[in-house]
Write a structure and sequence with these properties.
Layout lengths: L1 E2 L4 E7 L6 H12 L6 E4 L13 H12 L3 E4 L19 H17 L6 E2 L8 H9 L4 E3 L3 E4 L5 E3 L2 E4 L7 H16 L4 E6 L6 H16 L3 E3 L14
Parallel strand pairs: 1-8, 2-3, 2-10, 2-11, 3-4, 5-6, 9-10
Antiparallel strand pairs: 6-7, 7-8
Helix pairs in contact: 3-4, 5-6
Amino acid sequence: MIVNMSAELLLSISGISDRTLSDVEEFRGALDGRGVPVSLLVAPRRAHGYRLESDPVTAQWLRSCRARGDAIVLHGFDQGAGKRGRREFAVAAAHEANLRLIAADRILERIGLRTRLFAAPGWTASTGTVRALPRNGFRLLIGRTETTDLVSGMSRRSRMIGIGSGFPKKSWWCRRVVPLADRTARGGATVRLAIAAGRLGKGDTRQLVLDAVDTALDHGCVPAVYRWESRPALRGAA
């Protein structure tokens, strides 16, 4: 069953690591001045041997952000594990997804970042992954076009507007971000923005996202994070 979402502004950042943390911190500071919280998409392992549990500075920063009201979202287990262009969890059978979810959950619990929210790398989750998520205690699946309450089975449509991490990076697409946010907000719908941390080092891209944020705020969108609520009248994801 599909229901409409209230008009909110949901902003997520993916690809956070020691290499991108300084740019993410700077961007986060700009959002602080606007009163906008962030949903931080975290993967225990990334390409080139990166391990979040071996990066205490980034882990501590993420914990401090959650303490201030930001949300932590599991964004895969090992993002360097995809083969032939296929993203992790995009084609995984339930058994494989189950093993990866267990491993990721244990690592995040060990470093104080456990979450019940999940977004697949590339925003594509296989049928097997969708089945495995609630078995492992996950309550919200965040997708490209909707968010799904894994307890009730209810989904809420809302298109995501993103740069990088499964979305185009080309200049023609970046130029569409602000108009799309404006049109969405004018229509009274929730504005969902997503930015890959690796793109925040580019000043023009960072400013485009901030302009989209300002546009949504100007149209009355309420800043929020992804969250799960136990009552039937759910409003989103955290």
